[in-house]
Amino acid sequence: MTPRLLTFILLLALIRSSLAQSQAFTEVVPVDFLATRSVVLYDPAMTPDELNQTQQAFQQIGIDAVAYFEQDVVTAGKDVVRAYTEYFISRQIRHIVFLDKGIDSYALRAALFNQKTSLVDAGTVWRVQQPKLTELLRNVFQDTWRSQKKKNFLISDSPETDILVNPILGNRKELYAYDLKVDQLAVPRFGNEEMDKQLAQFFQDNYPLKYKLTDPGTDEKELRRSGCAYILCFVRTRGVAARQVLGYDMNHRETAYASITFPGGQLQLKTIPAQTEVYKFYFRHIDNGNVFLGNKWDADENWLDALRNHVLGFKTDAKLY
């Protein structure tokens, strides 16, 4: 599995089901689970009927799930996780519920929301798993009512799935950050030796402007004090989710998206299915939060290819060769 940024590696591990050992979970239902607000992060494989069935069961059980979001949207990147964390705090969310759908089973995980970008603390996640969704929801009902009294009564009978949370604090621009011709770019390392070596080599070979490799998780105020005006960012999720998160027009859903790529340094178009996981890089101004996405879609399946697409696209457009 390709390593994630250290700042939200626990979150991605939890949501993408990479916690394989049973001791990572608890058998104790989260405190006040039936008395406070929750938000549901669900597997994109779940159907609308399954989500409706789940919410109707939650209504009877007493789980006040006020919003539903696809898991890989919330975990798409550092900027995105930050935005959702702030949204959950503003909605007074107390618990995070994860709904997973496997090949032959369903699972529900729930934990107290820690009000951090990790969302939940390790070792506090309660899990229930069953072959069928009806059995899972029955299990949830039995376990919660055995330990708690229902206090939530005004609960919607349908899931709220159309809430959009904007991770862009400033202006959104479908062009490149031309000020980088004079301003320094912060390039966060991944915290993985091999990836960091490739990252350093790529910038040394391909980026003729001012940049600085920085440690993962470095406070952006410190980056600004060190002379960096912009920071390199990315999202990692399905192509359709990446476009939604970054504010692209979603009125016409496509089954695939054409990306500009640079195999061998030459511009080519590459068609990638909308449900395929991709990386999409962008530049963000540290002070004003303006996001520069580039003038062409340039996501790719491999992080280094996606980075090459964005940087070489910038160099081509800005005539930096």
Walk me through the structure:
Helix 6 packs parallel to helix 9. With 321 residues, this protein is of the alpha/beta class. A 6-stranded mixed β-sheet has the order 1-6-5-4-2-3. A 6-stranded mixed β-sheet has the order 7-14-13-10-8-9. It has a two-stranded antiparallel ribbon with strand order 11-12. The longest helix is centred in the middle third of the chain and has 15 residues, at 133-147. 30% of the residues lie in helices and 25% in strands. It has 2 domains: 6-147, Rossmann fold, CATH 3.40.50; 172-317, no CATH class. The chain starts with 8 loop residues before the first helix and ends with a helix. The protein has 9 helices and 14 strands. Strand 8 (184-188), helix 6 and strand 9 form a beta-alpha-beta unit.
Low-pLDDT residue intervals, each spanning 5 or more residues? 1-11, 13-23
Query: What is the radius of gyration?
Result: 21 Å
Strand order of the largest sheet: 1-6-5-4-2-3
What is the number of independent domains?
2
Give the averaged pLDDT, no decimals: 92
Query: What is the number of helical segments per DSSP (H or I, 4+ residues)?
Result: 9
Number of strands: 14
From the helix content, strand content and strand pairing, which structural class follows?
alpha/beta
Strand content: 15-25%
What is the terminal-to-terminal distance? 35 Å
Please provide the ordered H/E string of secondary-structure elements: HEEHEHHEEEHEEHEHEHEEEEH
What is the overall shape? elongated
Q: How is the biggest beta sheet arranged?
A: 6 strands, mixed
**Helix coverage percent:** 25-40%
